[in-house]
Amino acid sequence: MKITIDAKFDVGDKVYTVVNREYWERTKCLACEGTGKVLLLDNTYYACPNCNGHKTVATSKRTVWDYIDAESIDGIMIKKCNNKYKYSYDIYCEMFEEEDLFLSDGDAQAECNKRNENTIFTY
Ligand SMILES: [Zn+2]
Hints:
By secondary structure, the chain is mainly beta. It has one domain (about 15-120). It has one helix at about 105-115; strands spanning about 15-30, 35-40, 45, 55-70, 75-80, 85-90, 95, 100, 120. The strands form 3 sheets. A 4-stranded antiparallel beta sheet has the order 8-1-4-9, with helices on one face. A 3-stranded antiparallel beta sheet has the order 5-6-7, with no helix packed on it. The protein starts with 13 loop residues before the first strand and ends with a strand. The structure holds zinc ion. Zinc ion (ZN) binds near residues 36 and 48.
């Protein structure tokens, strides 16, 4: 049996990987007005119980698309299902899909910009 496959990338190609990152946005704690302290009736200050003295509280989770600088593809995994091929690329023992890999940082950034237009906020 002979199999001929056209893959978008080859082992050894340097690619930029688009990934999503999640982080919590923090806003000023309203309970202590951002001081991190609360004044008790005996005129002593304690760490604010709402923000634990951090002055801010986590208010929303944000998903942002960003890319990882060029790394070398270590391997290719190809699955054939219903006469369609699906390609996954091994970079440092982590598998990435073809649509997340780009040969230039400009293309990776353009894809990030496109995906970030639909940034997801969770409150
Ligand atoms: Zn506070």
